[in-house]
Design brief:
two-stranded antiparallel sheet, PNPLA domain-containing protein, 5 helices
Length: about 160
């Protein structure tokens, strides 16, 4: 987990260097939103994000860069479909997506889980999540700079 966090931080720092200052807010700040991994954290993070957009000044939420790991990569991708300055709409959209859903609804444990790797490459089937993401993303373009970090559990890379 630490390696994923450090990779996210390094990638974000590269975006917020002096060469990138031209795209930053007038105040010269570079704001980064990072979503972490761990399936159950996906909906929790969106709840926290909604609390932030409700209680913080909008100018403090204009994120220049978004990063995510694992389920956080899903949240980062959805958030990045919205323009900078439209953070409240992004947060509400994501809340509506997660509201009433549990992570288990997006991932289905394979029936042959005891011998995963023999018949299948993973314990969980993410076909439902892929379907939902295709519906949301379609052929839309990302509106923000972002990085996505993932790992292949078989190779460890």
């Amino acid at each position: 987990k630490r390696a994923g966090w450090l990779s996210t931080l390094a990638a974000a720092a590269a975006v917020c260097n002096d060469a990138a200052r031209a795209v930053l807010d007038e105040d010269g700040k570079c704001r980064i939103l990072s979503f972490r991994g761990g399936g159950v954290h996906g909906s929790y993070e969106v709840g926290v994000l909604n609390a932030l957009v409700e209680h913080m000044p909008p100018e403090e939420l204009r994120y220049d860069y978004v990063a995510g790991v694992s389920i956080g990569a899903v949240n980062a991708s959805i958030f990045s479909l919205f323009e900078k300055g439209d953070e409240k709409s992004a947060a509400k959209f994501m809340l509506n997506l997660w509201d009433g859903h549990q992570t288990s609804e997006f991932f289905e444990l394979r029936k042959k889980w005891a011998i995963a790797g023999f018949y299948e490459s993973s314990l969980a089937d993410n076909a439902k999540l892929r379907h939902v993401l295709r519906d949301i993303m379609g052929d839309k373009d990302f509106k923000r700079k972002m990085s996505i970090i993932s790992s292949d559990l078989n190779s460890g890379q």
